[in-house]
Design a protein that fits this description.
CATH topology: Non-ribosomal Peptide Synthetase Peptidyl Carrier Protein, Chain A
Number of helices: 2
Number of strands: 0
Helix content: 40-55%
Length: 69
């Protein structure tokens, strides 16, 4: 599977989960700033990605930071 195929599948998941038109989602789209995702959306997306791609995502794989600092 190449990068464009992966993006196509992710784009469809994002559009469905975030109720955003697919054509507005690009590889440069930012989940929070551009697509309006919140913490519950992230949980939903992680489960969807794990299911769609048959992978396990650990919390340690994310780069979370405190935006208030």
């Amino acid at each position: 599977m190449d990068r464009n195929q992966i993006f196509g599948r992710l784009r469809a998941m994002l559009a469905d989960s975030l109720a955003a038109p697919e054509q507005t989602i690009t590889m440069q789209s930012r989940l929070i700033d551009d697509l309006g995702a919140d913490s519950l959306d992230f949980v939903d997306l992680v489960f969807a990605i794990e299911s769609e791609f048959n992978v396990k995502i650990r919390e340690a794989d994310f780069n979370f930071w405190d935006a208030s600092t």
